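Working notes for the structural subgroup meeting. M.R. asked for a predicted model of this chain before we commit to crystallization trials. I am recording the input and output together here so anyone reviewing the notebook later can reproduce the run.

Input as submitted:
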Amino acid sequence: MNTSALILMLFTTLGVTGMLVYFIVRVLTTPPNPEPDSYLENDDVEKRKLPEDTDKRTR
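Returned structure, recorded in token form:
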């Protein structure tokens, strides 16, 4: 390999490694989302209620 290829390989490797470290640190230091993550927690409508006696087959 000639010198220019080694320099290009070195800068490319350092650049990719630097971006990898930057994004890993960014993901690990991101504060948690204050909004609920569940779709059910976002509903404004009352939750559906199950009928009182749903287990008729076992009696």
